[in-house]
């Protein structure tokens, strides 16, 4: 992600933090937001169009830069509220990072490679899509790549098999399955057995 897509401009908010003030901001094309950190929360207003456009490029582990007047904050996107009916973001929460101090974040897992098993008719199934890690802000990856090219049918890749950077600490059970390659025949048999069991239950009822 480019530095341009990482950068946001915001206006400071010093009053009217209630729902009425939030509605006024939304009507004017802005989004109420808060930056949380070790100090008092910083209330800001984002440009709705800019944030919505750039949000498409954000990952939960992307370090963002917000300019509020002459002050600059490095943050992570913590949470946001969305009005699905209107297709608009209603509120955003950010978490300010402190350089030199470790942070915890969720990072996406991206599968890399074409498994041997899929070339033999198997189906690749990704079970784990993100993990929690701990690291310094400068070492925060946008994603973790997991190589599945060696997987054959009925084989699985676990967290302990993934090569992680030495600069991060994985806060997950390393025995968790990341992905596996299932045989098509096995899936058909399982499906047939399930249908037979359901039919038997229906007859008993």
TrEMBL record:
Which GO molecular-function terms appear in the entry?
Answer: 5S rRNA binding; structural constituent of ribosome
Looking at the record, the residues that make up the Large ribosomal subunit protein bL25 beta domain are 105-183
- A GO biological process held by the record: translation
User: Domain Large ribosomal subunit protein bL25 L25 spans what residues?
Assistant: 8-94
Could you name the domain of life of the organism this protein comes from? Bacteria
**InterPro entries in the record:** Rbsml_bL25/Gln-tRNA_synth_N, Ribosomal_bL25/Gln-tRNA_synth, Ribosomal_bL25_b-dom, Ribosomal_bL25_C, Ribosomal_bL25_long, Ribosomal_L25_dom, Ribosomal_uL5_bac-type
Oligomer status and interactors: Part of the 50S ribosomal subunit; part of the 5S rRNA/L5/L18/L25 subcomplex. Contacts the 5S rRNA. Binds to the 5S rRNA independently of L5 and L18.
Family statement: Belongs to the bacterial ribosomal protein bL25 family. CTC subfamily.
Q: What does this protein do?
A: This is one of the proteins that binds to the 5S RNA in the ribosome where it forms part of the central protuberance.
Q: Report the protein name in the record.
A: Large ribosomal subunit protein bL25
């Amino acid at each position: 992600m480019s530095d341009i897509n990482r950068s946001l401009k915001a206006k400071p908010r010093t009053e009217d933090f209630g729902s009425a003030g939030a509605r006024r901001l939304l009507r004017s094309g802005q989004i109420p937001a808060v930056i949380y950190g070790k100090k008092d929360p910083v209330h800001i207003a984002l440009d709705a169009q800019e944030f919505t456009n750039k949000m498409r490029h954000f990952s939960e582990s992307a370090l963002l830069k917000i300019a509020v007047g002459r002050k600059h904050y490095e943050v992570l996107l913590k949470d946001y509220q969305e009005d699905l009916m209107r297709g608009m973001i209603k509120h955003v929460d950010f978490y300010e990072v402190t350089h030199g101090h470790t942070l915890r974040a969720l990072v996406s897992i991206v599968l890399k490679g074409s498994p041997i098993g899929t070339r033999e008719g198997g189906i690749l199934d990704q079970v784990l899509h993100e993990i929690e890690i701990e690291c310094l802000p400068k070492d925060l990856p946008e994603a973790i790549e997991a190589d599945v090219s060696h997987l054959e049918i009925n084989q699985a890749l676990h967290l302990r098999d993934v090569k992680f950077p030495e600069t991060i600490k994985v806060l997950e059970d390393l025995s968790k399955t990341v992905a596996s390659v299932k045989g098509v025949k096995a899936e058909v048999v399982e499906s047939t057995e399930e249908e037979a069991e359901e039919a038997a239950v229906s007859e008993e009822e």
